[in-house]
């Protein structure tokens, strides 16, 4: 038994010497340090490429910070949000859903004054005079009330987009696009779901509490 182990070890050392003399055989994701720690030498090196999750461990292509790791002043739990939002509001605000283009309550809504509040927490987000006709099928704003909206990199669906959320509750609003050539002061388009908003004519937070009754 012992002599067999010694023979195996010897052959292992010989193989390792062989492998290390031919550097290109080393898979791209094994660093010099991990190779040294592997006592089984060449056997492990041959087996490694068939283990798909290895590449995930060594990947340097880390996604940028997502909204999941953010914290907001309004920290209601999922259950608390379900209690005050209707299912469509919950889907869009809390699960980052999107309403169908051209269907939103505020898509063709152009008041001269007033404020669009967050439909979740009632924080004021956009003024009526931020809104412009984009023709994109969702309410479009070229700017927000200062500090009311936060931006995050969104890499879903194979695209790199900038998600916008309510700074107070983290509720998903939509995405912001830059440099599209709109004749607005910023050439930015905050493309916002109507479901994420609630318009108030008086221009201040309505104080009616979050989430009006479902229209459905
Ligand atoms: Zn909010």
UniProtKB/TrEMBL annotation:
GO terms for molecular function: metal ion binding; peptide-methionine (R)-S-oxide reductase activity. One of its GO terms (biological process) is response to oxidative stress. This is Peptide-methionine (R)-S-oxide reductase. Pfam families: SelR (PF01641). Its cofactor is Zn(2+). Belongs to the MsrB Met sulfoxide reductase family. It catalyses: L-methionyl-[protein] + [thioredoxin]-disulfide + H2O = L-methionyl-(R)-S-oxide-[protein] + [thioredoxin]-dithiol. Gene3D superfamilies: Peptide methionine sulfoxide reductase. Its EC number is 1.8.4.12. Residues 78-202 form the MsrB domain. It is an enzyme of class 1 (oxidoreductase). Keywords: Metal-binding, Oxidoreductase, Zinc. It comes from Penicillium malachiteum. Binds 1 zinc ion per subunit.
């Amino acid at each position: 038994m012992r002599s067999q182990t010694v023979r195996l070890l010897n052959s292992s050392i010989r193989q390792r010497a062989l492998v290390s003399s031919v550097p290109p055989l080393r898979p791209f994701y094994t660093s010099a340090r991990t190779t040294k720690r592997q006592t089984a030498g060449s056997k492990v090196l041959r087996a490694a490429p068939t283990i798909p999750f290895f590449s995930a461990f060594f990947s340097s292509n880390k996604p940028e910070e997502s909204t999941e790791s953010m914290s907001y002043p309004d920290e209601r739990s999922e259950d608390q949000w379900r209690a005050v939002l209707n299912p469509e509001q919950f889907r869009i605000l809390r699960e980052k859903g999107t309403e169908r283009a051209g269907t939103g309550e505020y898509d063709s809504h152009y008041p001269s004054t007033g404020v669009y509040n967050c439909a979740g927490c009632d924080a004021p987000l956009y003024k009526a005079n931020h809104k412009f006709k984009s023709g994109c099928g969702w309410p479009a704003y070229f700017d927000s009330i200062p500090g009311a909206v936060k931006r995050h990199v969104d890499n879903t669906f194979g695209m790199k987009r900038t998600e916008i959320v309510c700074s107070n509750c983290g509720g998903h609003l939509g995405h912001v696009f830059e440099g599209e050539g709109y004749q607005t002061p910023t050439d930015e388009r905050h493309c916002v779901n109507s479901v994420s908003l609630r318009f108030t004519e008086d221009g201040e937070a309505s104080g009616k509490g979050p989430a009006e009754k479902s229209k459905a």
